[in-house]
Each structure stands twice: as C-alpha cells, then as structure tokens.
Protein 1
Amino acid sequence: MNAAEDITVAPEDRLRADLYNYLGLMLAGPPDQMLLDQTQGLSGDDETEIGKAISALSRVAKATSPKKVESEFNALFIGLGRGELLPYASYYLTGFLNEKPLATLRADMAARGMTRAQNVYEPEDNIASLMEMMGGMIVGRFGAPAALDDQKTFFNKHIAPWAGHFFSDLEAAKNSVLYASLGTLGRAFMEIEREAFRMTSG
C-alpha cells in the first residue's frame, strides 16, 4: 500500500473533486454519448443553486445528441479562426494569450509535480486544465492530497480571479445551449468554493 492510499479523502472533498473533474471533462472537448448519458442521469437538490443547475443540465442533456453538442462546442471554443469564447486565464486577465498568468501557473505546476498531458497542445491556463488540476490536487493525483491552505492558494491565484467571469460568459454566450447550464453550474460552484476558502484560516 503506497502513501497516497493511506490518506483518506473526506467524502465532501471527493464530491468537490468529482465536480471539478466533471467540469474539466465537459470543457476539454465535446462530450461523447457516454458522458451525455452520465449527464442525463445527474440529479440535484433543487433548493440550491447548484442543485437547480444540475437538474437543468440533466434536462438539456436529454434533448441533445453528441453531434449537436459537438457543433455547440466548436462554435463556442473553436470557430473559424476562433470561437466565441477564449477560455484562458491569460486572456481573461490581460486581454492576450500566453501572458504572465500562464508563466506563473507553469512555475506552480512544476513546484507541485504537475505536467501537461502528452497529447494536449493547449496552453495550460485553459479552464478545462485548471478544473482538472484542482480536482487532482484535492484527491492527491499529484502525490499526497493537497492541504486546504494549498488548495486555497492555488484557487485564489489561478482560478478565482477569472473563472466566475468565464462561467458567466458561458451562460450568456449566443451559441450556448447545453453549455449555458454548465456555465450556471460552474459559476455557482466557483462562488461556493470562493466563500468556503474565504472562511478557512490561513
């Protein structure tokens, strides 16, 4: 048994990690039928904003197909020349791609033993990668699970300054259908995380 297995991750942290990973997966590329089926099967507690967003996402997923969602994804993020949205920290924070926020992130990734996947050519400061990094840190995919203070530092530095704005843009984007509900879910989750971290000491 290795050291990573010795450390149990609290159920609520596992749920947080699952949500980060799910957002990362949905934003990394158009969902296939399997991911759409899983999305259809999601159910939320309708009393909360996250619950309502999950229920809405599930309903929209039932009415779409991989082909439809692929053209939606392409219009939003790829487009002819460029998509409707540029989901990168550098762009949101400076107005340009490959700027200082990306260099800072790369230094932090190196310090934490995170490396870019072999087949990924996107800059690392894209929203999908950041969601996956956060999910991985919580459950210890890059070594031991990250302490709450470390998660907070990473979140406040690389995600909090722009992710909420990005998810709001995704909600309102003219090409968003399934992704409008994903934007609502992402925005609500970022608000909860920001508030939870604000309330932790350190």
Protein 2
Amino acid sequence: MKLAHGLAVRPSQIDGRGCFATVFFPKGGKIAEYTGERISRAEVARRAGGRRKLRICAINSYWSLDGSRGGNGTHYINHSCAPNSYMRITHGHILFMALTDIRPGEEITLDYVTTLHSNDKRCHCKAPTCRGTINKQ
C-alpha cells in the first residue's frame, strides 16, 4: 500500500489501526484523497455481506470506492463523534479536509454519519460528546 503524503498508519486507541498525520494540516486544507477500487452498488452489497469492517465509501448513488483494495491509508481514518476532518465529494473524487488544525502525530478522525453497518455498531471514540454508535440516528 502506497500511503498518501503526510500520513502514517499505526495502532489506534479508537479501533484497530488508524491514520495519523506526519505533517501539519491547517484548518480547511486538504489532507488527502480517498483511493481504492471503483465498484457498483451491486458489488457494494455483495462485499458488505459478512464483513466486520467495511472500507467502502460512496461517491454517489451508484459508484463507491473500496479502500481495502488499492487504498492509500485513508481507509484507516477512524470514526469519532468529535472529528478533526470532514469529507468533500467533488467531480467524482472523495477528499478529506481538515476541520481543525491537525498536528503531526494526531490521529485523523471523521464522523461517518451514515454507513453500511447496522445502527447497533458501537462507537469507541471516547469523546465527551460520544453518541455511542457510528451511525447518526
């Protein structure tokens, strides 16, 4: 896996492995683009069945990217109810943008809002504002 510039993958206190900054990302700046295999919604449904962790991100109502195949480390960005990044989809590209200043060594986190996981999938972010689940209900 070729990592996006300025990112490292290592053990996370949130869940498994996480994506960490190795450089400073200023608030509002681009962190990286999500990469992976482009798949249809039918293939998303097939792959989602039986997986404990999904690394699939929707581009639109038909196409998605599976970061577990050809990803650049951004597929390890963990969920947090108090995230430091957000996603922007533009012209078929999924970009991660800094919601706050992110310093080297900080884990990059994202509020997933809605996922292919059930609404019972627990959140482990430990934020004071944690809602308890990764899906916003």
Protein 3
Amino acid sequence: MRVADLREFDGSGALITVAGDVTVHEAVRTMAASSIGAVLILDDQDKVRGIFTERDLMTKVVGKELDPKTTRVLDVMTTGVKTVRVDDAAVDCLELMAAGRFRHLPVVDADDHPIGMLSQRDFVATTLPKALALTTQTARATVSKRYQPFAIGASVLAYTLVIVLAVRLFT
C-alpha cells in the first residue's frame, strides 16, 4: 500500500499553512478552525521550512511559559522536517513516524513542494476497518465452529439471568 492508497489521503484537500511570522495564538486558531493538529511553515520557494504541532505548543510555549500572543511560530516550530512522496510505501511512513516519535508527516511532490499531510489518524482510518473485518472473520471461522454449543448455553444463561433480575427489580 502506498501513501496515495490511504483512505484519508487523496492529495486534493487544502493544505493548511501559516507564515513563520504569525503568532502562536494565530496559528493555534487556524489549527482549531480546521480541526488539525499541525500546520506547515513554508519558505520563499514554497518548500517546507518547518512544522508547528500541538506538541510544540505544549512543550515549547506552554511548558516554557511563553506568551502565545507575542511568540512567533518561527521561534518555536520544529525544523528538519521529514517528508515523503505519494508513491512511498505507507508502512515505511508509519515506521518513520514511530522511529521519529512524531504524528504528522508532510507529503511533497517531485519538486519538494508540499501537497498534503499524513497523520497517524490516516493510518488508523485505513487499517482499523480492515483489522476489524479480519478479526470478525477469524472469530466466526474459529469460535462459532468450536464453541457453538457453549455460546448457545451462555446466551441462554445470560438471558435467564436478565429476566430473573428484571422480575425481582420490578416486582
């Protein structure tokens, strides 16, 4: 599976960026309005200069008691940002995020211009339904065949207990 195959990533959504000279307060308002956890800061050539995340807010602003209304994003953003391309393997991206202990990963085109942002939520949205379906299939194939009499007996017992409790509570 490639980045382009992730359910939540289609590369067509508006990429949210802020200028480096905006205040942290303004950046956080932008993030809140867009329901996102990170914004990119671009350089003069529209390439990734840095990223400002919820973690940056907590550790570099709140944790150091800086004033968000006067602190510039440029002064607290994360630099040296790793990027990936749409044809990169999704599992490699997830491993990169895990190894680097970050949750957001910009996706860039062949000219290194950002075209989207991956988050760990994108991986969950893609893989969770598949994992649940596989778990359900496995459970049906194994549990229902091996433990069908037990499951029927447990269901009858549970139903009986509910009826007995209901009768006692309401009489």
Protein 4
Amino acid sequence: MKNNLEDVLGIHFNNKALLTEALTHSSYGNEHNMPYNERLEFLGDAVIELLMSQYLYLKSEISEGQMTKKRAQSVCEEALVKYASKINLKEYILLGHGEELSNGRNRPAIIADCFEALFGAIYLDQGYFVAFEMFEKLVIPHLDLLTDIKDYKSTLQEYVQSFKNTINYELIEESGPAHDKTYTVKVLMDGITLGIGVGKTKKEAEQNAAKEALDKKVDIEG
C-alpha cells in the first residue's frame, strides 16, 4: 500500500519509515508499539499553511484580510479531507482494531490529520521545493471545491475586529484515550466567553466554539 501511494504521489521516500509514521494513526501505533503521526501532523500543519500563504501572496493581489480568510478556508479540516479524497488517502491509513470497527477510516479528523502528517513527512524527506510541487499537485487544482466551506473562526474574527476587539481560544477540557480524544474549547473576548465548542480535534472544537458565538449573536459591541 505504501508503495502504491508513492506511485500516486510520483515521489519515492528516501526514509520509508517517515511515510509509515505519517500514515500511522495513534490507535495503530499504540497497539503495535510504533511511532504514530501526531508529531508529523504538527509539522505538516505549519508546512501547508506556509505553502498556502506563499501561493496566495504570489498568485493574487488580494488584501491581507482577504488572504487570511482564504487561507483559513483552504487549510481547514473540511478542505484537507477534500484534497485527501483525490488520492484516496484514507485507504492507506493504518488504524487500530477498534478504530477500524468504529468506521474510523471515514472520520474527517483522522483523514485531515493524516494529510497534514503526509506533508510533514514529504517536507522532511524531500525538502521544501518538492513539498511545494506536491502542494501544487494535490491542493491547487482542487481549490474550486471549497466554495461551500464555512469557516466560522474567520467570520467571527472579522466581526470582532470591526469593533476593534480581539478574541482568543482556550482549551478547557481534554478527555478520552490517546487514540480517541475529545476536546472542549471556549472562545473569549476580553475575558468574556462568547461560545464553547466540542470536537475530536482542537481545530474542530474551535470552529464549533466560533459557530456557537455566531449563532448566539453575542453582543460583541457591548
């Protein structure tokens, strides 16, 4: 399966262990006592955000605010799942027995995290320029699929900034086993809680917190 994915990508890893790690979910890693992809996901998240920032800067004349909104929409979980679907990435993910039985292969958070981890692995193994080539191959052609994605964090940020206020997100609870955690996050403005969100990833929880704030039509002006 790994070799097949390399063929799909059109690159061959010098360090095959990096690719294996990128495809290994924590549930499988814990069952087999092997590294899993959370650290590569952390790196890949930053790599994809940088690549998207560079692309928007070079390929458009839009303002900073518009670039920020477009980037957020283009690297959110829902967008990453859309990109990953084009290479059928979910079929290559190594999942533990419990995750397989609970349909984990179709969980958006698992697929998005693996896509980020894959870019972390590509960056480490092949370097920045190959990572950008992969970005142009796997992401850029599919940006037109994102028109229906709602980025609640950016919408809330724009609304708050129009009143010269700022917001921040705070993790208030983390529960469940390592392979199946649930996160609870609150969004605050000047110490006041605007909304609380729950999700299987911190990003999902933040989006849900922002959505609650917008749904409640909180009095941000006051």
